[in-house]
Amino acid sequence: MKVVDAFRQVLLLGELLLPRHDDYHVMLRFLRARKYDVEKTKQMWTEMLQWRKEFGADTIMEDFEFNELDEVMQYYPRGIMVWTRMEDLYYIERLGLIDPTKLMQVTTMDRYVKYHVQEFERTFAVKFPTCSISAKQPIDQSTAILDVQGVGLKNFNKNARDLVTCLQKIDGDNYPETLNQMFIINAGSGFRMLWNTIKSFLDPKTTAKIHVLGNKYQSKLLEIIDASELLEFLGGTCTCVDRGGCMRSDKGPWKDQEIMKMVQNGDHKCSNKCETPHAEEKTIPEDEGVVVVASKVLIP
């Protein structure tokens, strides 16, 4: 808490803190990413603000429409859901069903990156806050489940490598410390060869959170996810037939209107840990600065 408070004062003095980002856990994530070195974290924060301004991340939720989502989901099936036991998010991707060539025929690299950022923005603006209120504790990380059945070098052509590299840099630089842990399931010999290549694109801190499993993964997943919340093809009983299937259900506490009202009122923010006794504090008005919020895809 002392380091977060010190970092907050540095941001205030440098006119780098907006009310929208004045949250204990937001600042804590950035500090963790730079091993609590305040000066290095300030540099990271400053570069993040500049990126957001240049990329247009502050308004991407309103300005960008990803009309090709249905087609994209055919060639890149993925989804985010909540499990009841931990009141947390888990994120699923079926990498063995990805077709990078056809994916780039229905969208472009630039548009997919924008969609990726837009999804992160929604996660930080809506999903994490509603989960935090529902769980009555801060939620700002998710667990990823990557089904790699059938994955081999054919799934990792130049388009795929370029996309992974681009998204990894955006995530690491601007949305740090959002991965709780990752389970890679159905990892056969083809994927294990590919994994050695993929690891070279990832931060070592990320790879330390990754568990590569074979086809006997069900018991491990059921240790952390209720069977009723785990997809049927993963060994659970969830089908979401009334929502078009689990991968597209988008179910979670953000569907609760009362919880959404609390988010809009800022009830999810940890302002009690951010307040300090200093009287002279200068926070930039939102219309004079840049805003922060948050992504995920191929490799979170």
TrEMBL record:
InterPro entries in alphabetical order: CRAL-TRIO_dom, CRAL-TRIO_dom_sf, CRAL/TRIO_N_dom, CRAL/TRIO_N_dom_sf, PI/PC_transfer
Topological type in the membrane: Peripheral membrane protein
Transmembrane segments: none
Keywords from the named record: Coiled coil, Golgi apparatus, Protein transport, Transport
Entry's Gene Ontology BP terms: protein transport
Keyword Transferase: no
One GO cellular component term noted in the UniProt record for this chain: plasma membrane
UniProt KW Protein transport keyword: yes
Domain CRAL-TRIO span(s) in chain numbering: 68-242
Superkingdom classification of source: Eukaryota
Cellular compartment(s): Cell membrane; Golgi apparatus membrane
One protein family per Pfam: CRAL_TRIO_N
SMART domains the UniProt entry points to: CRAL_TRIO_N, SEC14
SUPFAM superfamilies found in the cross-reference section: CRAL/TRIO domain, CRAL/TRIO N-terminal domain
Family, per entry: Belongs to the SFH family.
Protein's name according to its UniProt entry: CRAL-TRIO domain-containing protein
Source organism per UniProt: Jatropha curcas (Barbados nut)
Lineage: Eukaryota, Viridiplantae, Streptophyta, Embryophyta, Tracheophyta
